[in-house]
Design brief:
alpha+beta; 25% helix; 28% strand; 2 domains; six-stranded mixed β-sheet; Rossmann fold
Length: 375
């Protein structure tokens, strides 16, 4: 896939002391116990997304300052290093291309970005002197040497800026997904689904087939669900829309608070995974949260379908969910000697076991070693 992330290397980031060249494929299901480092791995993608918007400083500050990001703190780790290898089909940089950077600590608990570089043809090209913010955004309009296509700087910016980390854990009465949003906020589904109502409204009008796929998926999990009602309401000078819906056999407009936490979470997941123009990578942490086993089976099908159209990275603790994937889709996160490790499984190593057990059963039995580690 264009823009797919092939390998990732991480040094000194939170619980990840050293991760060298982890292979990523179209579908990547990360399993591991609590505290194994799954969420830290996902946070790497959040941080890179903020870097493309020149918001690294804000991201770090809101999470306690730079010291909190260094493996075992600044006394043991003085820098964070990361490298990402991508696939490109652009006319300027066909094949594999890389992006790397180093974050070094300042006296006021901030980071400076050093050694920010892209790999072009046979050489690393620097983005300039150390800076508090990434220069990726500045290169979004970069052209190639012959000005016939975008340059590799744009390619890296484009791939990373279109990653979306979806996090639908907050389904409380005040959660953004249960509230109104302006109709204009409809081009891209937000990571917390705050704009799910205007996004679905646009799909219904412009991509009816995809909209109907989402509705059918929701009906499989919520049998009494008939369709969404996405009526526009005038609120002062703004026009807003809310995720109202109707149930089968009734014209009464149901409101978001009539949906259970699991139901509204599944609606958000189905919308994210079935959208017609998906992000360059979909990243979801614990999508199974609050879902019935039957809903998890439908979710697994949606994840597999999405991975045929874009890159998908899922972190989970659910044996029920991983039962629906192949052993080669699994990356095991473990914690050993205070640090997180990540290893992609090889089907040949489990061929005999898989004759009698599912992937989830092998994990529960600790044949796939990913349980709690006592240090």
């Amino acid at each position: 896939m264009q823009g797919a992330l092939n390998k990732i290397s991480i040094n000194g980031f939170k619980s990840i002391r050293e991760l060298a060249g982890l292979e990523l494929r179209d579908l990547n299901v990360i399993i591991g116990a609590n505290g194994s480092g799954k969420s830290n791995f996902i946070q790497v993608f959040r941080m890179l997304g903020e870097m493309t918007r020149k918001c690294l400083g804000k991201f770090i500050l809101e999470r306690g300052g730079a010291d909190n990001f260094l493996f075992n703190g600044p006394k043991e780790t003085d820098a964070i290093k990361m490298e990402f290898d991508f696939t490109s089909t652009s006319c300027f940089a066909v094949g594999e291309n890389s992006y790397r950077f180093e974050l070094t600590l300042t006296a006021d608990e901030k980071f400076l970005i050093n050694e920010e570089r892209t790999y072009v043809t046979t050489n690393w090209r620097s983005y300039g002197t150390p800076s508090e913010e990434s220069r990726l955004y500045d290169l979004k309009d970069e052209r190639s040497w012959n000005d016939k296509c975008k340059g590799v700087g744009y390619f890296v910016y484009d791939a990373i800026s279109r990653w979306v980390v979806y996090h639908f854990h907050d389904t409380s009465s005040s959660a953004p997904m249960r509230r109104s949003e302006i109709v204009e906020d409809c081009d891209r589904l937000r990571g917390d689904a705050a704009n799910i109502a205007p996004f679905l409204r646009k799909l219904k009008n412009a991509n009816a087939r995809n909209y109907e796929e989402i509705v059918r998926a929701v009906r499989l999990v919520i049998p009494f669900f008939d369709d969404f009602r996405l009526d526009v309401q005038k609120m002062g000078e703004a026009e807003k829309v809310r995720l109202s819906w109707r149930q089968k056999g009734s014209d009464f407009p149901m409101q978001p608070y009539h949906l259970s936490d699991g139901s509204i979470r599944f609606i958000c997941l189905a919308t994210a995974l079935l959208q017609p123009n998906p992000p360059s990578a979909i990243i979801i942490d614990e999508p199974e949260l609050g879902l019935h086993p039957e809903a998890i089976a439908v979710l697994a099908e949606l994840i597999q379908d999405a991975s045929r159209r874009t890159q998908v990275i899922v972190a989970t603790q659910s044996p029920t969910l991983i039962n629906h994937f192949g052993i080669e889709d699994i990356i095991v996160a473990k914690r050993k000697d205070g640090q997180s490790t990540f290893e992609r499984l090889n089907a040949d190593d489990f061929s005999i076991w898989l004759e009698n057990y599912s992937v989830g059963e092998l994990w529960v039995k600790n044949v796939i070693a990913g349980g709690s580690s006592h240090e």
